[in-house]
Amino acid sequence: MKNWKEKFNKISVDKFDENVFNLIGNEWFLITAGTSDSFNTMTASWGAMGILWNKPIVQIFVRPTRYTFEFTEQNDFYTISCLEKGNKKILSLCGSKSGRETDKIKESGLIPVETENGITYEQARIVFECKKIYYDDLKPVFFLPDEIDDEHYPNKDYHRIYIGEILNIYMKM
Ligand SMILES: Cc1cc2nc3c(=O)[nH]c(=O)nc-3n(C[C@H](O)[C@H](O)[C@H](O)COP(=O)(O)O)c2cc1C
Predict the structure, then answer these.
(1) How confident is the model over 45-58, as a mean pLDDT?
(2) Class of domain 2-172
(3) In the prediction, which pLDDT does 76 show?
């Protein structure tokens, strides 16, 4: 497996100047957790970036039914990989098939690359390497309107929110 140094440069958080609403909501990204021996990835389009406890953070939402959930639970780190344009097919595949039944890396053509604490892909343009610092589960509290609860949670499998401290940002050279 290639090392990130062959493909990416590191940039500091204050040099990152993209529109996160576009990056997360329109371009989508891959959440990958695990080690080079055993990892899984899935597509996500919900997330948040900002500052918490004076640290730069990324917040992700993973339903406990996802295979990826087993990896985010068992590992201290995860990566957020924003792919280069033209990779929507990969994102659709990784967002519709489960790693329980499918070798998504083989089927998608993703080429894994090792980062300092995780895995990303040659197809990535920007990668956030995160260390879990907090989690909580969404709850059907009174200000979550019934329509959202009914639409998204007919099985009451509320997303787990992970807050990850951004340790590194890798950008394609
Ligand atoms: C555009 C898009 C966005 C998605 N966003 C999320 C998300 O934020 N959280 C989540 O739990 N699942 C999300 N999913 C669903 C998972 O990617 C999907 O269930 C995937 O097959 C899970 O794979 P796994 O079982 O290998 O983990 C999204 C799917 C798509 C297509």
Answers:
(1) 98
(2) mainly beta
(3) 98
